[in-house]
Design brief:
137 residues; alpha+beta; two-stranded antiparallel sheet; 4 helices; 6 strands; 17% strand
């Protein structure tokens, strides 16, 4: 038993989350780049660039770590959003911040010079997608 505990203490254990079909969704810190299944889940949730007002489709987007990888951000759906190349490269320079709200949707906090109250904003495309009525009831 002591040898087993010693080996377990030295092991690199990586927690992962799988879908009901065994597809890997949460990679923790095992991998920096989102996998195909995570990307498909992001496309389903965000539908394209999540920055407010941007209408770039998913094909034009990159996966973005909300808490940066170099700051121990995880590669999981609670820490990823889709951004077009422009917004991926420039939102920080313009003073914007992003986070996921309690519903798991990316919301953007504008800089004080644009909104002194810094009211969080969600891309209208995302709002329209979650508020649409189903075609079949």
């Amino acid at each position: 038993m002591p040898e087993l505990l010693r080996l377990a203490g030295e092991a690199e254990i990586y927690p992962v989350v799988l879908t009901t079909h065994g597809k890997l969704l949460d990679l923790g810190r095992t991998r920096r780049v989102a996998n195909k299944h995570q990307t498909l889940a992001l496309i389903a949730r965000d539908g394209g660039c999540s920055f407010p007002g941007c209408q770039h489709p998913p094909e034009w987007c990159e996966r973005h770590h909300i808490l940066p990888w170099h700051q121990n951000g995880l590669t999981n759906l609670r820490n990823l959003t889709l951004l077009c190349s422009y917004h991926h490269r420039h939102f920080l320079d313009c003073g914007w911040e992003v986070r996921l709200n309690d519903d798991g949707l990316p919301e953007w906090i504008p800089p004080r010079y644009l909104d002194p109250d810094q009211t969080p904003m969600i891309n209208n495309r995302i709002l329209a997608r979650i508020h649409q009525t189903p075609l079949l009831t």
